[in-house]
Amino acid sequence: MTFIMTYDQRNLNNINKLAYNTKKAALQWYRYCCEQEIDLLIYETTRTLEEQARNYKSGASQTMRSYHLVGQALDFVPVKDRLAIWNGFDTPKIKNAIAKAKQLGFTWGGDWTTLVDKVHLQYEYNGYGTDPFGSVKETATAPRPIVSQTVLNIQKVVNSRYGTGLKVDGRYGPATNRALLKGYQIELNEQYKAGLMADGIWGPKTKAAVRVVKKGARGNITYILQATLYVRGFDSRGIDGIFGANTEMAVKSYQKSQNLNQDGVAGRDTWTKIFE
Asked: CATH assignment of 149-275, given 1.10.101.10, 1.10.300.10, 3.30.420.10, 1.25.40.10?
Protein backbone atom coordinates (compact mmCIF):
# COMPACT_ATOMS: atom_id res chain seq x y z
CA MET A 1 0.00 0.00 0.00
CA THR A 2 1.26 3.47 -0.91
CA PHE A 3 2.18 5.58 2.10
CA ILE A 4 -0.01 8.70 2.38
CA MET A 5 1.04 11.55 4.63
CA THR A 6 -1.20 12.51 7.52
CA TYR A 7 -1.85 15.98 6.07
CA ASP A 8 -1.59 14.92 2.43
CA GLN A 9 -4.34 17.12 0.98
CA ARG A 10 -3.21 20.21 2.87
CA ASN A 11 0.36 19.60 1.74
CA LEU A 12 -0.66 19.19 -1.90
CA ASN A 13 -2.89 22.26 -1.81
CA ASN A 14 0.04 24.33 -0.56
CA ILE A 15 2.44 22.89 -3.15
CA ASN A 16 -0.04 23.87 -5.88
CA LYS A 17 0.39 27.54 -4.87
CA LEU A 18 4.10 27.59 -5.73
CA ALA A 19 5.76 29.06 -8.83
CA TYR A 20 6.33 26.73 -11.78
CA ASN A 21 9.85 25.34 -11.30
CA THR A 22 9.65 25.47 -7.52
CA LYS A 23 6.46 23.44 -7.68
CA LYS A 24 8.07 20.80 -9.91
CA ALA A 25 10.99 20.42 -7.50
CA ALA A 26 8.66 20.38 -4.49
CA LEU A 27 6.60 17.59 -6.07
CA GLN A 28 9.72 15.52 -6.66
CA TRP A 29 10.71 16.02 -3.03
CA TYR A 30 7.23 15.22 -1.77
CA ARG A 31 7.09 11.97 -3.71
CA TYR A 32 10.49 10.98 -2.38
CA CYS A 33 9.32 11.61 1.19
CA CYS A 34 6.21 9.49 0.60
CA GLU A 35 8.29 6.65 -0.85
CA GLN A 36 10.55 6.79 2.21
CA GLU A 37 7.50 7.00 4.53
CA ILE A 38 8.58 10.35 5.95
CA ASP A 39 5.53 12.11 7.37
CA LEU A 40 5.52 15.91 7.05
CA LEU A 41 3.24 18.90 7.29
CA ILE A 42 3.89 21.58 4.66
CA TYR A 43 2.11 24.33 6.50
CA GLU A 44 3.01 27.36 4.39
CA THR A 45 4.20 28.16 0.87
CA THR A 46 3.12 31.48 -0.63
CA ARG A 47 2.63 34.53 1.57
CA THR A 48 1.00 37.94 0.99
CA LEU A 49 2.71 41.27 1.60
CA GLU A 50 0.37 41.86 4.54
CA GLU A 51 1.35 38.53 6.10
CA GLN A 52 5.04 39.27 5.58
CA ALA A 53 4.61 42.71 7.15
CA ARG A 54 3.05 41.13 10.25
CA ASN A 55 5.93 38.63 10.48
CA TYR A 56 8.45 41.45 10.11
CA LYS A 57 6.75 43.53 12.79
CA SER A 58 6.62 40.60 15.22
CA GLY A 59 10.26 39.65 14.60
CA ALA A 60 9.43 36.31 12.98
CA SER A 61 11.05 37.64 9.79
CA GLN A 62 14.07 39.90 9.63
CA THR A 63 13.27 41.45 6.26
CA MET A 64 10.35 42.26 3.98
CA ARG A 65 12.14 40.33 1.21
CA SER A 66 10.97 36.73 1.44
CA TYR A 67 11.01 33.90 -1.08
CA HIS A 68 7.52 33.09 0.19
CA LEU A 69 6.28 36.28 -1.49
CA VAL A 70 7.41 35.07 -4.93
CA GLY A 71 6.28 31.44 -4.60
CA GLN A 72 9.78 30.02 -4.20
CA ALA A 73 9.67 28.71 -0.61
CA LEU A 74 7.91 26.27 1.66
CA ASP A 75 7.88 25.71 5.42
CA PHE A 76 7.49 22.20 6.78
CA VAL A 77 7.61 20.29 10.06
CA PRO A 78 7.96 16.56 10.84
CA VAL A 79 4.78 14.75 11.92
CA LYS A 80 4.33 11.81 14.29
CA ASP A 81 0.99 10.42 15.47
CA ARG A 82 -0.75 13.39 13.78
CA LEU A 83 1.30 15.87 15.82
CA ALA A 84 3.82 18.40 14.50
CA ILE A 85 7.23 17.67 16.03
CA TRP A 86 8.94 21.05 16.01
CA ASN A 87 12.17 19.68 17.49
CA GLY A 88 12.22 16.64 15.19
CA PHE A 89 14.71 17.81 12.57
CA ASP A 90 17.63 15.73 13.82
CA THR A 91 16.17 12.28 13.14
CA PRO A 92 17.78 10.16 10.40
CA LYS A 93 14.66 10.21 8.22
CA ILE A 94 14.31 13.99 8.33
CA LYS A 95 18.03 14.43 7.65
CA ASN A 96 17.58 12.24 4.57
CA ALA A 97 14.59 14.34 3.49
CA ILE A 98 16.61 17.54 3.87
CA ALA A 99 19.53 16.03 1.97
CA LYS A 100 17.19 15.09 -0.88
CA ALA A 101 15.73 18.61 -0.95
CA LYS A 102 19.21 20.09 -1.24
CA GLN A 103 20.08 17.62 -3.98
CA LEU A 104 17.03 18.88 -5.89
CA GLY A 105 18.27 22.46 -5.60
CA PHE A 106 16.61 23.78 -2.44
CA THR A 107 18.44 25.87 0.13
CA TRP A 108 17.72 24.79 3.71
CA GLY A 109 17.29 27.42 6.41
CA GLY A 110 18.91 25.10 8.94
CA ASP A 111 22.26 25.76 7.22
CA TRP A 112 22.03 29.50 7.77
CA THR A 113 24.28 31.12 10.36
CA THR A 114 22.51 34.45 11.00
CA LEU A 115 18.94 33.20 11.46
CA VAL A 116 18.72 29.41 11.63
CA ASP A 117 15.31 28.42 10.21
CA LYS A 118 15.01 24.63 10.13
CA VAL A 119 11.42 24.64 8.83
CA HIS A 120 12.36 26.58 5.70
CA LEU A 121 13.24 25.43 2.17
CA GLN A 122 13.64 27.90 -0.68
CA TYR A 123 14.22 27.28 -4.37
CA GLU A 124 16.30 30.15 -5.63
CA TYR A 125 16.14 29.08 -9.30
CA ASN A 126 17.83 31.99 -11.16
CA GLY A 127 17.41 34.40 -8.28
CA TYR A 128 14.71 36.10 -6.26
CA GLY A 129 11.42 36.37 -8.17
CA THR A 130 12.75 34.64 -11.30
CA ASP A 131 10.42 31.63 -11.21
CA PRO A 132 7.21 32.42 -13.11
CA PHE A 133 3.68 31.55 -12.12
CA GLY A 134 1.15 30.33 -14.65
CA SER A 135 1.29 27.88 -17.56
CA VAL A 136 1.61 25.05 -15.06
CA LYS A 137 -0.10 21.99 -16.50
CA GLU A 138 0.80 19.57 -13.73
CA THR A 139 -1.40 19.64 -10.65
CA ALA A 140 -0.24 18.14 -7.39
CA THR A 141 -2.20 15.01 -6.63
CA ALA A 142 -1.76 12.07 -4.29
CA PRO A 143 1.77 10.85 -5.05
CA ARG A 144 2.37 7.71 -7.03
CA PRO A 145 5.52 5.75 -6.26
CA ILE A 146 8.10 6.19 -8.99
CA VAL A 147 9.11 2.89 -10.55
CA SER A 148 12.84 2.86 -11.17
CA GLN A 149 14.61 0.34 -13.38
CA THR A 150 17.71 0.71 -11.22
CA VAL A 151 15.73 -0.16 -8.09
CA LEU A 152 14.18 -3.12 -9.92
CA ASN A 153 17.69 -4.37 -10.66
CA ILE A 154 18.79 -3.86 -7.04
CA GLN A 155 15.79 -5.79 -5.77
CA LYS A 156 16.45 -8.67 -8.17
CA VAL A 157 20.10 -8.83 -7.12
CA VAL A 158 19.44 -8.90 -3.36
CA ASN A 159 16.77 -11.55 -3.85
CA SER A 160 19.07 -13.67 -5.98
CA ARG A 161 22.14 -13.34 -3.76
CA TYR A 162 20.56 -13.30 -0.32
CA GLY A 163 17.10 -14.87 -0.63
CA THR A 164 15.39 -11.86 0.93
CA GLY A 165 11.99 -12.49 -0.68
CA LEU A 166 11.71 -8.78 -1.46
CA LYS A 167 8.85 -7.71 -3.71
CA VAL A 168 10.36 -6.67 -7.04
CA ASP A 169 8.37 -3.56 -7.88
CA GLY A 170 11.00 -0.90 -8.59
CA ARG A 171 9.86 1.23 -5.65
CA TYR A 172 12.42 2.13 -3.05
CA GLY A 173 11.40 2.24 0.57
CA PRO A 174 11.91 0.63 3.97
CA ALA A 175 11.50 -2.95 2.68
CA THR A 176 14.30 -2.47 0.17
CA ASN A 177 16.48 -0.88 2.83
CA ARG A 178 15.93 -3.84 5.17
CA ALA A 179 16.78 -6.29 2.40
CA LEU A 180 20.03 -4.43 1.69
CA LEU A 181 20.93 -4.52 5.38
CA LYS A 182 20.20 -8.23 5.48
CA GLY A 183 22.53 -8.69 2.52
CA TYR A 184 25.18 -6.64 4.28
CA GLN A 185 24.90 -8.85 7.37
CA ILE A 186 25.22 -12.00 5.26
CA GLU A 187 28.35 -10.60 3.59
CA LEU A 188 29.88 -9.80 6.98
CA ASN A 189 29.18 -13.38 8.04
CA GLU A 190 30.63 -14.92 4.90
CA GLN A 191 33.66 -12.68 4.52
CA TYR A 192 34.56 -11.93 8.12
CA LYS A 193 32.84 -14.69 10.12
CA ALA A 194 30.90 -12.10 12.09
CA GLY A 195 28.34 -14.55 13.43
CA LEU A 196 25.43 -12.17 12.93
CA MET A 197 21.75 -12.96 12.62
CA ALA A 198 20.75 -11.71 9.17
CA ASP A 199 17.55 -10.06 10.37
CA GLY A 200 17.68 -6.69 8.61
CA ILE A 201 17.99 -4.87 11.94
CA TRP A 202 20.81 -2.45 12.69
CA GLY A 203 21.72 -3.61 16.18
CA PRO A 204 24.82 -3.42 18.39
CA LYS A 205 26.36 -6.62 17.01
CA THR A 206 26.01 -5.48 13.41
CA LYS A 207 27.41 -2.07 14.27
CA ALA A 208 30.39 -3.68 16.01
CA ALA A 209 31.08 -5.89 12.98
CA VAL A 210 31.21 -3.01 10.45
CA ARG A 211 34.01 -3.13 7.88
CA VAL A 212 35.63 -0.07 6.32
CA VAL A 213 35.02 0.19 2.58
CA LYS A 214 37.02 2.70 0.58
CA LYS A 215 38.33 3.56 -2.87
CA GLY A 216 39.78 0.53 -4.61
CA ALA A 217 37.46 -1.96 -2.90
CA ARG A 218 35.55 -4.47 -5.00
CA GLY A 219 32.81 -6.95 -4.28
CA ASN A 220 29.35 -7.39 -2.82
CA ILE A 221 29.76 -5.02 0.13
CA THR A 222 30.75 -2.25 -2.26
CA TYR A 223 27.67 -3.11 -4.33
CA ILE A 224 25.49 -2.82 -1.23
CA LEU A 225 27.08 0.53 -0.38
CA GLN A 226 26.37 1.87 -3.87
CA ALA A 227 22.80 0.56 -3.77
CA THR A 228 22.01 2.03 -0.34
CA LEU A 229 23.39 5.39 -1.43
CA TYR A 230 21.36 5.26 -4.63
CA VAL A 231 18.03 4.67 -2.90
CA ARG A 232 18.79 7.64 -0.64
CA GLY A 233 19.30 9.89 -3.64
CA PHE A 234 23.10 9.77 -3.89
CA ASP A 235 23.89 8.27 -7.30
CA SER A 236 27.41 6.90 -7.77
CA ARG A 237 26.77 6.65 -11.55
CA GLY A 238 26.85 2.91 -11.62
CA ILE A 239 26.14 0.07 -9.19
CA ASP A 240 28.87 -2.35 -10.17
CA GLY A 241 30.63 -3.34 -6.94
CA ILE A 242 33.71 -1.28 -7.82
CA PHE A 243 34.61 1.58 -5.45
CA GLY A 244 35.91 4.22 -7.83
CA ALA A 245 35.98 8.02 -7.97
CA ASN A 246 32.21 8.37 -8.49
CA THR A 247 31.42 6.15 -5.51
CA GLU A 248 33.86 8.13 -3.40
CA MET A 249 32.11 11.35 -4.47
CA ALA A 250 28.69 9.88 -3.60
CA VAL A 251 29.97 8.84 -0.16
CA LYS A 252 31.35 12.34 0.45
CA SER A 253 28.03 13.91 -0.58
CA TYR A 254 26.14 11.63 1.77
CA GLN A 255 28.60 12.34 4.61
CA LYS A 256 28.15 16.08 4.06
CA SER A 257 24.36 15.73 4.26
CA GLN A 258 24.71 13.92 7.61
CA ASN A 259 27.35 16.28 9.06
CA LEU A 260 30.00 13.53 9.05
CA ASN A 261 33.69 13.78 8.26
CA GLN A 262 33.81 14.01 4.45
CA ASP A 263 36.64 11.56 3.81
CA GLY A 264 34.88 9.42 1.20
CA VAL A 265 35.44 6.31 3.28
CA ALA A 266 32.50 4.18 4.44
CA GLY A 267 33.43 3.44 8.04
CA ARG A 268 31.37 2.85 11.16
CA ASP A 269 29.83 6.33 11.35
CA THR A 270 28.80 6.31 7.69
CA TRP A 271 27.34 2.78 7.77
CA THR A 272 25.49 3.64 10.99
CA LYS A 273 23.85 6.68 9.39
CA ILE A 274 22.95 4.66 6.31
CA PHE A 275 21.26 1.84 8.18
CA GLU A 276 20.09 3.22 11.54
From this structure: 1.10.101.10
